[in-house]
């Protein structure tokens, strides 16, 4: 969900694109929208889902470096794997706040993923961690920060 503030009226936009495109036309539509939203600044991203592998397939190497998602506040329920963490590290520019639920992290979460998570979180001015049942991870984060 994307939020826009136009003439002091808040407007919310929901861009519902296919996660797995079925044909070339859907790929073209996804590419067009990714290009458009990467040029914008959004006050608030809420549970936006990006498919890093699809974006890599759609854009060539030189083009993909231009793709960033800029905003003030990003709210995510889950960061479930290393490829999504790397995508966030390289593609999200957060100027105010990152609100994340870390209840997904368990003993199977790899040290490499934790290192990527730390690098990502260190780029953000303010972080809110919600529902973290893993107190050892929180202590590690506080020691790094």
Structure report:
The protein has six helices and six strands. The chain is an alpha/beta fold. It has one domain (2-144). Strands 3-4-5-6 form a four-stranded parallel β-sheet. The chain has a two-stranded antiparallel ribbon with strand order 1-2. The longest helix is centred in the first third of the chain and has 15 residues, at 24-38. The mean pLDDT is 78.
Tell me briefly what this model is:
The protein has 145 residues and is an alpha/beta fold. It has helices at 24-38, 52-58, 61-64, 82-91, 111-121, 135-144, and strands spanning 2-6, 9-13, 41-46, 69-76, 92-101, 126-130. It has one domain (2-144).
Strand content: 25-35%
Order of strands, widest sheet: 3-4-5-6
N-to-C terminal Cα separation, in Å?
Answer: 30 Å
Q: Point out poorly predicted stretches.
A: none
């Amino acid at each position: 969900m994307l939020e826009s503030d136009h003439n002091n009226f808040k407007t919310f936009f929901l861009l519902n694109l296919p996660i797995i495109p079925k044909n070339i036309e859907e790929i073209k539509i996804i590419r067009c929208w990714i290009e458009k939203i990467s040029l914008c600044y959004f006050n608030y991203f809420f549970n936006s889902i990006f498919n890093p592998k699809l974006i890599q397939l759609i854009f060539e190497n030189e083009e993909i470096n231009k793709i960033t998602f800029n905003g003030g506040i990003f709210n995510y329920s889950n960061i479930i794997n290393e490829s999504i963490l790397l995508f966030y590290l390289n593609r999200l520019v957060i100027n105010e706040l990152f609100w994340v639920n870390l209840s997904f992290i368990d003993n199977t979460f790899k040290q490499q993923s934790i290192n990527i998570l730390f690098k990502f979180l260190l780029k953000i001015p303010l972080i809110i961690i919600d529902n973290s049942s893993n107190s050892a991870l929180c202590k590690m984060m506080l020691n790094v920060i």
